[in-house]
Amino acid sequence: MKTLRFPWVVLALAAVAVITVAPTASRAADGEYVIQAGTVVTIDGDILTEGGSVFVSGGRIEDVQPGYVNPWGATVQKHETAWLMPGLVEAHSQGGLWRGTNERAPDTPFVSVLDGLDPLNDYFTDLLRDGVTTVFVVPGDQTLLGGQGMVIKPVGRTAEEMIVRRDAGLKIALAPRRGTSRMAQLAELRRALTLARGAEALEVTSDPDDPARSARQVAMSALLEGRLPAVMTCVAPVDVVNAFAIMDEFGLTGFIRLGSKSRRALPLLAERGVPCILPDDIEPLETDAETGKSERRYLAAECKAAGVPVVIQANEASGYGMRSLWYQAAVAVSQGLTRAEALRAVSLAPARVLGVEDRVGSITKGKDANLVLWSGDPLDPASHVDLAWIEGDAVYDRTKDRKLVRLLDGVAGSRPAEGR
Amino acid sequence: MNATERGARRRPSSHRRVRIAAAVVAAALVATPIVVRADDPADAADLVVRVGQLHTGDGKVLRDAVIVIEDGRFVSVTEGGAVPKGSAARVFANAVACPGFVDAVTQIGLDGGAAESPEALTPDVRAADAFDVRHRDLKPTVRAGTTSIGLLPAPVNVASGASAAAVLRADGSAEVLLRRGPPVFAFQPPALDNARVPSTAAGARAMLEAAFAGRAWTTSGEGSIPVRPAALEMLAAMKRGPSIVYADGPENARIAVQTLRAQGLSPTLVGLRSAWKDVARVADLRVPCIVVGLDPSDPIGLLEMPGKLAAAGVDVSFATGAPARSPRSLRLSVALAVANGFPTAQAVPAVTSRAAVALGVGDQVGRVAEGRRADLLILDGEPWELRSRVLLSLAGGRIVRDAAAEAEASK
Amino acid sequence: MRRLALGLAVCVAAVSALALPADRVDARPQNNGQQRNNGQQNDGQRAKAELTFVGVTIVDGLGGAGTSGTVSIEGGRIRMRTGGGRRVDVEGAYLAPGFIEANGRTGYVSNAAEVTREMTANVDVADLVDTRSSEFREAAFEGCTTVVMVPGTENLVGGLTQAYHAWGPDERAFPIEGAPKDLTVTMGNSPSRQTVRNFPPRRPRVPPSTSIYARRPTTRMGVVWMLRQSFLAAKGVQPPPDDADLTHYREVLDGKRQLRIQARALQDLNGAMRLADEAGFDFVAEGAEEGYMLRSELGKRGLTVIAGPLPSVTSGSGPDATETALRNARILRDAGCRVVLTAGVGGGRWLREQGMFATRYGFSRDEALAALTSIPADLCGLKDRGRITEGAAADVVLWSGHPMLPTSRILLVVVDGHVVLDRTAPG
Amino acid sequence: MFRLRLTVALFVLALALVGGGRADAAEPEGGLVALIGGEVRIGDGQVLSGATVILRDGRVEAVGKDVAVPPGARRVDCAGKIITPGLIDADSALGMSPADLSAKVPGADARAADAFDPWDARLRTALRQGVTTLHLGANREHLIGGVAAVVSTGSPGSAAIDADGALVINVSTRRSAAGLGGAARVALVRSTFISVDYGQVQRERWRRDLAEYEVKRFGASPLMEEELLLPPELLARMRLWTPTARAAWRVAAFKSMGRAKKYTKPKKPATPPKAPREDPSTDVIASTLPAPEAVLSDDGPKTSPKPKGAKARKAKPAKTRSKAERRTFFRAELAADVDGALGAVRDFRLEGVIVGGQGLRDRVQALGKANVAVVVSYVGDTAWSHSSPAARREEGLGAALADAGLRPALGTGATGVARFLRLHAAREVGEGMDPQDALAAITLWAAEAAGVADETGSIAVGKRGDVVVWSGDPLDAATRAERVFVAGQEVDLERD
After folding, report:
1. Contact between residue D477 and residue C30 where contact means Cβ atoms under 8 Å apart
2. How far is B279 from chain A (nearest CA, A)?
């Protein structure tokens, strides 16, 4: 009888997820309020430990003051024991893409995640539970020119509502996809880019909005002119070297997502100043094929030592630990980064790489009001997210999260989680 | 129908093979473990050789040695001795001589199948029964300097069968020297496989310990496997003596050695191609090791393993594992090991006396000493250096390669 | 004074020998590449370290809050006083007992069990373990100093367990002498879903096969039937199925050997309790993902539960199609069970993460540390390990912060008196 | 040549020297090193005993018996040691992944330099065995293998010596060397060159027709008017355009400037000739053919592009061609394959390198006449494998080729085997090759086959400072490489 119950359970979970999102998305009455918390972590300023007040108006952060003050005369929400953090930024993810992350054809620069996003996917509510308010969703790595990714916020009923930055990056895979070799992959990439550059030169009208231009030409001309950054995924250090060669040969701009074996390329990245994102496993075990010796490498520490700004992403494949950005930041602290550097590596640094640092990444005047209230120090596993706001709207409230009750206490425990 | 008949009833692919198979079956039926030594068709010429340096095969090096060969055997080996009167001595002043190489682990000539796969315990199968004495690979083998080969059943069963030793003749044919050599066991895939019994080294240990005590290994629950009583008797009868066991990694080697030593069999480890990750563990076992099929594309850890084992005091020898690797690659494997730290002093014994001892024919081949078969290699440099050219090579007292004669012939 | 002068003289001589002439002609030794062996061979008996930890916060692994003090290690034993040997003085450091993985399931040579039989009681897991596997080193480098290896779940009766020191001075895990060996049983889907066909080889692998050569238990009913048959035969009530070796079953019945049963789903837990009452043996439950549904019965029995690794935090479903609860361990502990945490197939390296996430779902930091140290030690019969008390075994780890915080870094790991990892040395 | 320098510059820019300063005091002051008193084997057969080699800033400054040691040089005593140039594998795959050797490549423009991983763990072992330079032979399983590359096994920071090398054509692959397959493959090779050659002629003809079309279309040469009227940066950008684009632009521009009426509309609107398809692969293959200047001379068959019948055979245009820009690397195991390759070299006037096995021995005379470089490849298979075609070669192949004066180089053709190149050379000596020739086969002759003889291959003034100091004869298995200098820098052999 056991197997019959399983589908019923999934339906219940999906229903609960919908209810959680809907009611809290309504806009606060007059759009102006003050949030006061025991500790406010601004990321680009210092940490306000004896209380701080953040004045939000019209979806933006108007002002940040130390202490429990309210010069602006707006309604106040006070949380003495809580920590107020900016929403974290997930630098690279394929979450929420429905039915696959890559087209079978390798050369599809015109494809966009806008058409593949499933706004009601559980992935987005899980992000809120982990304090993440901005995520860069991009096609997968089994491709040549994989398609365009977007920086989105994890709330919204349609994909258009979720957009933060639309043309945020075109996925280019330097490492060979399954079934080909590095030689073939690079040759095909050079051919595609040379063809695009030739077609670009043939273009009589370089007006991008001309409907006559094909979607491929729109994407490729944006890439070649630097308007659309290239998201280059590299697995081995030699891929990073080839990425530099391609960037020089075709004048591309963009950033590199490193694979777990590309540690040795960090000095090259430091020297060239190309922004890069660390792989999802920041403590890989490297085995030397010749001598059989295996050694654990600590990538966050090595990235800091090489002088490259540290940007950390979550690891969706892991069951619990590494799938949360706050846990990855804590592991980075255990590797030797300071707490400030680790928190910056999951908020302001990724925002800078994705080109949205003017809107998200820290509690600073003029930025979007993406705020998250934690019950304690976010790097301590015992603390959790109580409230979250995106662009001023309250989007998550732990006391109304019915799916969390099921997860914590299982089927038999129907009563809400006591206390916590 | 016992194993020997089953072994002999092969598909005769050509007329010649049928005749040989019949002869082999006849010899087996006599079932007396006498050593069949047929004489060479032509009578062996007498020969006296004087060389600047002679590696005797057991590690000693003689200067200015005189070797007298009569009737295919070494009659006298003296250092700095005089050439006996009335015989034409061939003098190689600054040459180096060593015994003919012994390739301990091969399946050359076992084209009819090197293992009976359905059962895990087939100790009564003999490799010699399937050996084709005129196989086409034997000619290049003897021309490459290998004069004796060990025939081991493939490692497909935990108790794979009885090994055999054969000596090669100058004309590229062979002659079985020892028909029923040390028993061969296997504690590595494909003997350990999930699709058959046993699947792990632990199962192999349990099965063999039960068999040595004369009973089939069963535990509670269904699915126990019928084991032939003949196999159980033969395994129970094995009390002392040498044995050969295939093992790939250090853990399987440890379990294999413990199991066989408990029964009083002194094992020789064979294969060890993934033991390089824990050389110290293998050296602890204090058993002779035969490294099979060293190849220049192996990881450096494996190529340095013979050197580390030798440093830890283990008797290391080499084998090609033909036909998986070329039978001509024995001397090249030694050169590879020397290039990666194997001591040159042990290079010659590693492919002569030690290999012969492991096959149980240490008293007949593998050394240049009185009474031994006249297998001799004379080169213009050290035997383990690939630069050295063969000046003269003898198998059973008959000339296989003679550089001087070949030079005249080609002019 | 004389000895001091002599010592000084020796140092000066040593230093001068080392001082290199200014314009040295570089005469490299003859055979720099000749012999690169990795140090001489020795087993665990090398001389044990002598250390003194000064001004550390001691979390003793028995559930008590941290107390500052000085601890020293001599001859493989802990002394709660200042001893001789090297002083380790790191500001703000914590000293905790090494974690104990009571249910180690990684680091096998190839298979985790002898799959050609359903019930292999006399197979010892020591023959299946690859002590050189990097899984053990990685476990030691994440604070887990003892791993109790368990046979695989492919068999109904896997065999005997074996406790190991996670890593040693000679780059290998080495067994703990005298540690008791438990018998392991697996209920649920795993043993009856094996696609292995005994023989003859090259049989079709589609389960369940009606062939007589197929593995016997193909349903949960079959699983319990075979267990009942063996235990009652050991008890003498029924004739033994063909001359099987029932010694270990009798030891369990006589209480001389501990029995572990992996039971995850509700009906497996009930089946195990029913069998225990029928045949009259005690057992330790492993997994128990749906234990929270039977909290009162399990609590009444005072059962020891090795709570399976935490399920995914998003799906709410676990192995064997169980419906999991993230606070399952807390609920069972409140109900009166003795709860031990394990990382299972994740391996000793992820054991600390289980403890950290237990603090997220109902445990305090020190309770979580106890569930990783002293409680599993008592369960596995290693009474002198998993705690920092006078005379306890020297399995200790020095941390930069509380071990249950992910921001803490390991500074020093001592396994059975040997220093295995040392990041305190300068440079 | 321009493309070669650009690519080398890019690669140097990208591969900054990674090896940090090493702790021990062997830090060379300004890269000036003097190896004193060793037996120097130049690489072309000469041996100088008790000689000195001076390396400065990555190059060999001086070598000889009585060479003065410049002040401030790091003196290295090599008494009793043997100094040779760094060993070179003439047909290697070390540092490439197995997929690169077998997966299909899109065309001739695939580059082996892209697949070379300078951080491959086996390169460390190759350095310890004295191998400093590899000629990567691109793909081995398909007819068109791609573009080879010459790389250094030194520290990852070191540059590729020639990132854009020879075109690789596999007449016979590693597994199949059957006669019949070979004949079909040779025909395919020839047809490839014919179509590319024909394509070149077509492109020249198209350019000429287009120029005619433009003159007819616009009266005065349109180019001169453009120079006067248009801003320089637009002109610069237009130079990038293909002629069709420029022609189309000109029509629009002149119309927009109100001068359209000046041009009388031609009765039959002449359409610009159709441009041949751009294909990077044919460009690479075309670069192996000498430039076809004479094809447009008056006696050429202007009228019908494809000459037909007897007349065509007789009046074949005398194509005088300059030297090819890129060399061609033919892999041919059997005699039939070697014939096919030599035929292609002769008919299309290629700069050929024949990489073969048993076939070379049977075609020694033809090879001598065709002045092509010769490489004996898969030498590892000859010794070890039992099944591959290379295993069936007769002994003494190197000796036979060297005695015929062919300067054969040795190639391993595999990933791991390249580390023990010196043992394969030793085996060739054991089978009859002269020791001096064997050393030349893995140094100077290999550099010549790889086309970098002016850069490395022997210890000569001006060449790269790739030098190895051995404890004994490098062909002896018991010998150790005590010091290895790559581009003048000593490699730390102990560091993993």
Report:
1. no
2. 12
Half-sphere exposure in the Cβ direction for A59 (13 Å, CA) = 10
C20 shares contact with chain D (CB less than 8 Å): yes
The CATH number that applies at residue C304 is 3.20.20.140
**How far is it, in rounded angstroms, from Cα B322 to Cα B329?**
9
Q: What are phi and psi of C6, to 5 degrees?
A: -60, -45
- Is there a contact between A208 and A218 (Cβ–Cβ < 8 Å)? yes
Conformation bin of residue C117: beta by default, left when phi > 0, alpha when psi is -120 to 50: beta
**Beta carbons of A183 and D241 less than 8 Å apart:** no
Question: DSSP state, D10?
Answer: H
| Domains in chain C, number | 1
Could you tell me the two tokens for B237? 């009868």
Query: Tokens 């070191």 identify what position?
Result: D158
Q: How far is CA B366 from the centre of its chain?
A: 10
Contact partners, residue D142, CB within 8 Å, separation at least 6: D104, D105, D170, D173
**Contact present, D243 and D210 (Cβ < 8 Å):** yes
Identity of the residue in A179, A188, A289 whose CB atom sits nearest the CB atom of D121:
A289
Residue C194 to chain B, least CA–CA distance (Å): 11
Alpha carbons B203 and C110: distance in angstroms, whole number: 12
| CB-nearest partner of A183 from D11, D110, D278 | D110
Sketch out chain B's domains with CATH numbers. 47-99+368-410 (2.30.40.10), 102-359 (3.20.20.140)
pLDDT at residue B15, as a whole number: 55
* Pairing mode, strands D467-470 and D409-410: unpaired
Residue C352 identity: R
Instruction: Please tell me chain C's helix, strand, coil percentages from 3-state DSSP, rounded to the nearest 5.
Output: 30, 20, 50
> In this structure, what DSSP letter does residue C34 have?
T
Please give the Cα distance from B10 to B25 (Å, whole number).
11
**Token representation of residue B367:** 């050394």
A319 touching chain C per CB within 8 A: yes
Could you give the count of Cα atoms lying within 13 Å of A246 in the half-sphere of its Cβ? 32
Between D160 and D69, name the one with better pLDDT.
Answer: D69
C394 in a domain, yes or no?
Answer: no
Top residue of C40, C42, C111, C162 to mutate, by most chain B CBs within 10 Å, is C111
Beta-carbon contacts of residue B146 (< 8 Å; ≥ 6 apart): B100, B101, B102, B103, B168, B327, B330
Taking CB atoms and an 8 Å cutoff, what residues of chain B touch A291? Answer: 299-301
Give pLDDT tens digits for C356-406: 999 999 899 999 999 999 999 999 999 999 999 999 999 999 999 999 999
Q: Say how far apart CA A73 and CA A32 lie, in whole Å.
A: 10
For A343, the enclosing helix (H) or strand (E) is: helix A339-345
Answer yes or no: is pLDDT of A220 > 80.
yes
Inside any domain, residue C407: no
Q: Is residue C44 part of a domain?
A: no
Tokens of D60: 């060999």
Of D14-18, D148-152, D490-494, the range with the lowest mean pLDDT is: D14-18
How many beta-carbon pairs below 8 A join chains A and D?
120
Residue C274 lies in a domain: yes
Cα separation, B253 vs D217, whole angstroms? 87
Q: What is the pTM of this model?
A: 0.80
Residue C18's pLDDT is what? 39
Backbone angles phi, psi at B280, to 5 degrees: -60, -40
Question: Which residues contact residue A132 at a Cβ distance below 8 angstroms, ignoring those fewer than 6 apart?
Answer: A87, A88, A89, A90, A154, A314, A325
Across the interface, do A413 and C409 touch by the CB < 8 Å criterion?
Answer: no
**Domain range enclosing C260:** 98-385
Structural domains in chain A plus CATH codes: 2-87+368-409 (2.30.40.10), 89-354 (3.20.20.140)
Residues D415-432, mean pLDDT to the nearest whole number: 90
DSSP-H helix ranges across D363-489: 364-369, 379-384, 397-403, 421-430, 435-441, 444-450
